[in-house]
Amino acid sequence: MDLLERIQSSLHQIKNTLKADSDIRKLLYYTTKNSLSKSEVSYSSMENFITLRPVFNMNTETFNRSSFLTIAISEMEELEDEKIFDGVLRINIICKNDNWELDNQGVRPLKIVGKIKNLLDKKKFDSSHKLLFMNMQIVTLDEDHSGYMVLFRIVEGAGLENEF
């Protein structure tokens, strides 16, 4: 399997890892302050809440949600004669501004960021690449939607299997 096939596979693994987290599902699905105390949300119902599309139109049904995640590779560069690739994985957490506050002094997009960081930081995917948390930045889409962009460094390379 070549590099781009492994990275595509990893993007789906990342999406499935995030979909599998019960708290992330609740925080995306429910709009109330007590989202985390609500009943479980099914894994299959998350299909339109977590996407691998980097560009989205808020007016389409898929993205007309109170909260959603987008996952994409935003850059990739070749190092050391095609043996190592270094890039950036970008995850956008977008929430309606009216739904930011949660019970117990929680903030919905920051709770989601924390869950994502715990699930993905220093996690190895496929045969030879790993995610390393870089930073997060505020994202404002419009007067109704904002959130955070979480950036992970993705390192991929032949011969790195034992490095992590």
Report on this model:
This protein is of the alpha+beta class. The protein has one domain (about 5-155): Phage tail protein-like (STM4215-like, 2-Layer Sandwich). It contains three helices and eight strands. The protein has helices at about 5-20, 20-30, 110-120; strands spanning about 50, 65-80, 85-95, 100, 105, 125, 130-140, 145-155. The longest helix is centred in the first third of the chain and has 17 residues, at about 5-20. The protein is globular.
Notable characteristics:
164 residues, alpha+beta, STM4215-like, 6-stranded mixed beta sheet, 8 strands, globular
CATH topology: STM4215-like
Largest sheet: 6 strands, mixed
Rg, please?
16 Å
Amount of beta strand = 35-45%
Based on secondary structure, the structural category is alpha+beta
Q: If classified by CATH, what would the architecture be?
A: 2-Layer Sandwich
What would a concise description of this structure say?
This protein has 164 residues and is of the alpha+beta class. 23% of the residues lie in helices and 36% in strands.
How are the SSEs placed, and which strands pair?
Elements: H1 3-19, H2 22-29, E1 50-51, E2 67-79, E3 84-96, E4 101-102, E5 106-107, H3 108-120, E6 124-125, E7 129-140, E8 145-157
Parallel strand pairs: 1-2
Antiparallel strand pairs: 2-3, 3-8, 4-5, 6-7, 7-8
